[in-house]
Each structure stands twice: as C-alpha cells, then as structure tokens.
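Researcher: Final request for today, and then I'll write up notes for the group meeting. The sequence and the SMILES for zinc ion follow.
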Amino acid sequence: MLRITGGTIYDPANGINGEVRDLYVEDGKFVSSFTGGRTIDATGLVIFPGGVDVHTHVAGGSINFARAMTPEDHRRTQAFIRSQTRRSGLGGMAPTTFATGYLYAGMGFTTVNEAAVPVLSARHTHEEMADIPIVDKSCLVLMANNEIMLDLLEAGEYERAKHIVAWHVWAAKAYGVKAVNPGGVAAWKWGKDANQLSEPVEGYKNTTPGSIVTSLAKIIDELGLPHPIHLHCNNLGAPGNITTTLETMKHLEGHRAHMAHLQYHAYGGDDWDTMKSESAQLAEYFNAHPNMTTDAGAVLFGDTVTITADGPWQHLLYKLTGRKWGNLDVENETGCGIVPYSYRPSNLVNAVQWATGLELLLLIDDPWRVFLSTDHPNGACFWRYPEIVQLLMCADFRKECMAGLPPEIMNRITLPEINREYTLYEIATIMSAGPARALGLQQKGNLGIGKDADMVIYHSDKDIARMFGHPRYVIKRGEIVIEEGDIRETPDGSEYLVKPSFDPGTDEFLRPLFEDRYCMSFENYPVEMERIERPDLQQCITTE
Amino acid sequence: MGGKVTCTLGEVKNRADFIVYWGGNPAECHPRHFTKYTLMQKSPFLPRGRKDRTMVLVDIRETKSAKASNIFLQVRPGKDFELITLLRAMIKDQPISEAQVAETGLTIEQLQDFVSRMKAAKYGVFFFGMGLSMTRGKHMNSAALLTLAAEMNAFTKFVAMPMRGHGNVTGADVIMRWQTGYPFGISFNRGYPRYNPGEFSTVDVLVRGDTDCAFIIGADPGATMPQPAIDHLAKVPTIVLDPHVTHTSKLARVHITTAPAGISAPGTAYRMDEIPLPLRPALKSPYPSDEEVVRRIKEALLEKPDWMGERPQMLQNQI
Ligand SMILES: [Zn+2]
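Model: Predicted protein-zinc ion complex:
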C-alpha cells in the first residue's frame, strides 16, 4: 500500500489539470482510499501518469542488427553496472535490452510499443522483450507487404485476406498491425519502389499502395483491434512526399488510422536542394479529420542510427551519406535497412526535418491526436525526449535554437511564426494519456480508480529538460522503480496481446502457400503462448 | 562505406538467380544448403529451379562444391581481398591493371564475365565461408565482400551472408548482442560489458591464465583449443555442462550431465540467417536442461553475501 499526498496532479484522461490531490495505491492499482501504509509526501511536486511510447524500435532482428553495426558507439556510451539483482547494459544509439528498460523508466515511461515485427522472427522479438525490464510492452506485426495477403487482395478475396491478417496477428502474438510503405517493400526486393499510390505494385495488375491501405484499414476496423492500422506511408523522407501523404490520408477516410512519424512525410519541394516543410498544409488536413492520430517522429541534432522496414529509403540514405548500410530482406513479408546517421544543424535538409517535427507537434491543435516520438532510433534516441518537451514548452528556447540554423532555411519552415507553448497538461496528454488511448490500453495513461498505478513524480523546475530527464520518483504498478535517478527495483513488465477471431480453416489454407514460399516448417511459424512471458490478453472492440 | 546487406534464406530460395559461394564448401560442410535453399528449389519467380539459377564457386582449390557450380574461379591463396577490390573497381568502370589481375590467379576475361553476370542477375547472393573470413585478411575480407554486395545494389539486388558453423553459434551471437551489445569476446570484469576479441576471447583469456574458474556449456574446448589453454582449464576449477562426457569433462573438476537441447530439452535455435526456430523435444530425459542447471547455480549464488561491494549504478562515460 502506498499513499502519495499533496502532489499537483496532471491527469488528462480524467480532466484533472494541476489540482492538488492524494493518490492511493493497493495491489498495483489506484484505489479510493485506505488508512495506514507508506506515505510519500509529494507537496510541491508534479505528478503525471507514466509515459507511453506509441512508436519505438527496441526489440527484435532489426535493432539487434543495428547493435551489431555500431560497436564504436557502445564503447563510448553510458554503462549500467550490474549488482547481485540487476543486469548490466549499455545505453547509446541502440541500447541493450536491460539498459532500454532502465532508460525508459529513468525518464518516467512505463509502457512501450515496439512498432515493427516480421512474423518470421516474432519469436526473437518476444525473447528480447522478455529481457526489457520494468516497462510493459506490446508489438505490431508487419503486414502490408505480405505476399500471401497481397495475392488475395489482388484476386478480390477480401474476406479471406481478413482471416489471414487475424491469423498473423495471433501467430506473431502481436497487439496490432503495422503497415510499412505498402507494396513498396515487396517491390524493393526487386530493387524497385512503389511511389505512386494509384499505380499497381510491381508484380500485380490491380493492387496499388492505395488499395492496400484502404483494405488493411477496413480489415483492422472490422477485426476490432484496439489499435487501428499503424501506417508508415510510402515515399518516406523524400522531398515533395506531402502529395503522397495527403493522398494516403484520403484513402483512410471512414476508418481509424494511426499515421506513424508524420515528420518524415511532410515535405515539399522537388529535390534535396528545394526541400521544405509542408507541415502547415498537412496539419490543416489532419486537424479536419478526427479519424486519425499520429506521432511526431521528431528529429534532434546529433548522432543516431536509422533503422526501418523501408529498404528503399535506407538505400537512398546510404547513397546520400556514403556511410555503413545494413539491409535485411525477410522472405514474403518485409525487409529492414540500417544506416548510422548524424543530423546536423548546418545541413539544410536536417534543419528542415528538425523544424518539421516541432511544427507538426505545435500546429496539430488536439494534443489527444499527436504524440511524442522520435521513431527511436531514427530521428533521435528515445532518451532524448525531455529535450523535445523543452522545445515544445519554451518558445524562447526554440528561437535560440533557430538562431543556429542556416539563414536560407527561413523561407522553408514555419516554426519562426509559431508562438504556441505547451502546458504541462498538454505534455501529459501527448506523452501518456493520448498514446495510451490511441493504443486502446485502458489501464494506462490514467490516474483514475482501478487503473494501473504507473506514475511519475517530478520536481517542479524551470529547466524543463532537467525536470523531465530526472524525475523524483517513478512508480510502476505501485512499486517505486526509480528514486532521484537511482534504479530501486526492476520488476518484469507484461506483454499485451490480442486474439482477433479467424476461420479455423485458415491453417489448412495457409499451409501449402506457406510451404511454397518459406523455408521453415509451417508448425514452427506461430509463436506459442508459452513463449510469452507474462502475457496480458486484451479484448477486441466494436467499431462502427 | 560498407555495411551489411543480407536476407533470410527463404528470399534466396524464392528469388536468387545468381548464387556465389566464396571460400566455402557447402557440398561437404552444409550438405542440405543446395537442396533446401540455393539451387534445387523452384519458386513462382524461378519456376525451372536449378535451370533458372547460376552458381559460382570462388575458392583456392577445386572442392566437391565445384562440381555443383556453373563457374569455378580458382583464386590464388591469400588474394581474396585483392580480387574483391578489383571487382569493386570493375563494377564502377574504374581502371585496373593487368598486373593486378594476374596477381589473383584469374584472367581479365574471367573477371569481366563475372562482373557482367553479376550485373545481369535479378537477385544475387554471396555466401562466404571460413575460407574467406578466417584466412589472411580475416574480417577485412568479409567486410570487403559485404561492401561489394552493398555497392552492387546500385545496379541490381544483391545480398551477402556468412556461412556459420554448426550448433547454435548464431543463437549465442544474437543473444549476447541484445544483452551486451556485442556478439562475443566480452569481459564483465568491470561490471558492464566490454568487447575486445583477441583480448577477451575465451582462448586468449585461458592462454594468459586470466581466469580462476571456467564454466563450459555445450562446447568442448579440451578437444580443440591450444595446449596452454587446455592446461589452464585443468588447473582451475572447471565446470562442464554437457549431455556427453567430453574431453573437457575429463579434465574438469565437475561434470553435470544435461538433457540434449532439441532432443529432450526445449528452447530456441537461431538459423545462420538469424531466423529463430523453436526446439520441440521428442523425448523425455532424466537429466535437467542446461537452463535449469544455470538457474539453480544462480539462485545458490544469490544466497551468498554480497561480494561485489560498493560501486556506482552507472557510468556516464566508460573509461
Ligand atoms: Zn518506426
């Protein structure tokens, strides 16, 4: 039993905006009251629900591939030293699993969503997630380039495709569906890309990226997955891709959708020399269409490693930077690419990207629909989120940062004209309550009675980055896990799964197709429930 | 420049029409490779199977694998790096000299033919074995070949993949990487992972006599390591976990018989392309699994008083 008294509470899920209240925790959940138990005096401190990351890459084949490619970074980064009960680890651009848990918890995050899992290596992702301590986890299975599903859509067998999607969600023990560069990754396996939403995908007659997007969004709504289609649009990172992004959004009308890392999809211009931000145009459309949520995919200056299931984009980056390139194509499903990268303020393209991410966060007016993310590790490492919070809350600080950018940038961005400053209430929304709601995790991002007692207690501090980077306490399911920067406990988190219903004959339908294309026996493909440590099965929902 | 451009074996099976084995002898070392993945399989993209695929073998001698290949390129021993560098120049139409070509033991016609075939391929793959990665130049050779594969992507689809040894070597590699950031050759002496193959690799640590205890799981260094390393294993308390009594068991202080993984103990094995496969035991064993033994040893160690002393939780920068 734990009682937290006198704290100033920001709990957007319950409309509580900076009120002093007491919180009571019993058996890991909030309760209305009790007597006795330990008390934390939080007078003068600020309390948020624990942070929720809607889009990150922390476990599985791709990030582990990135770890293999960046030994130089491991050597210079921070090191967590083991104790008798706590495992050691390394931070940096692609932190090791144990360090990932410590670093997320260290800045008050208690739930993370791994955004890209190929079914073929889902077993690997789950084994890694079991080694990420403290935080609760979920993951999304990659579907938009699954050739078996594409063939069915091509043949007009929509119902069957729906069963296939549901089957894959359950086989991967995933929580939802991620669509990356629909049709484009499949084409990339032939060294091509899918750039036009209405042009057939390489190897198909009728199936276009646009038709894949619409069908998948509809399938996911009909299956009632708690989290909508999680979409990484085509043409990521390319100048002028605003057209593709808006076109994609039109294909989603009438469906729920989460648009991943919108920053990378909000550019105008014709080439790298003329590239500019189109965040204003994008935000205007987005504001008028409440069916969508998004995460920023913001960029911060500095070193990182980029990793996505978007092979074509990675090849482009490799050509641009001439740096190391890793690419992994996975049979029948997806691929992934990896390039170490430095974002520099002196580089015009990087400066536009930096501004675009912030502009989207500031121009999208509903904080319930835009969330804090850097598409870790692509735009910046997740442990740098407090710097973004500072940029959002202090217009003066933004101006200072802009003074360091090349002067030519000013007619390519709108950031200098934006004076909005986020309030603490809005920060709590984009960092916790909003992403929890978008994920459909009703236990999270909410300090109400009966909810999981995940919370973070901050010192009130004028230095915003310090305030959010160094919480006074982090509490996970009622247990103090971080206290003044020290790791106190490292409990294991749960893993959220869903089981959408599918025709029991799907196995027999898939078996021959599978054995034709994969070199793994069909029985070895689905991840067994016993392999998931601490599974927490969530219910599907009804959408209208 | 450089990096690693690779794929899963299913991609090879479905798409690869141009397959190069470099410094490996799959016919003898990975006998099922040809039939399961690279040569014999048919797919919607390669309906005629073997007929739709070209195989090239690059090696210093004509092994049994040469018989399976369409083209055999006999490179002079120790000249792999030079050959790869020439190929990297040739694909970009950069000038090369006759003397440089002669050094590799091949002719300019052979090289030109190879380059034009690489460029004409729809999906090319390099498999490289110990003959490339463990000979003169070692990881420089592998890095050069990975770079060639990456650079070929300016013309067509090309990937590269190492042919790894037997057992679950890949699995150990993968897990060490997610837990420590490094694949092997790791020291925890300072309480956090540090990496330096050649210094922290098992054989180096043993030869220098740096350990005062050895814990061997599923390996038999007593049969394969140099004598000074074996001598040190015999000197210190060595504990062996193995389904069989091995050479190492005989010089160890303690041998614990464990259930053989995959036969009577469950788990996960990682294939050479890092795809995880579940191990489903068919038989019951009277012996505990390796995992169970390690867990019980760890629990027993936790009963002991804290021997680690005061130390910080975290170092902001490693020293
Ligand atoms: Zn992502």
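Model: The mean pLDDT of chain B is 87. Residues 169-303 of chain B form a domain with the Rossmann fold fold (CATH 3.40.50.740).
Researcher: Thanks, that's everything.
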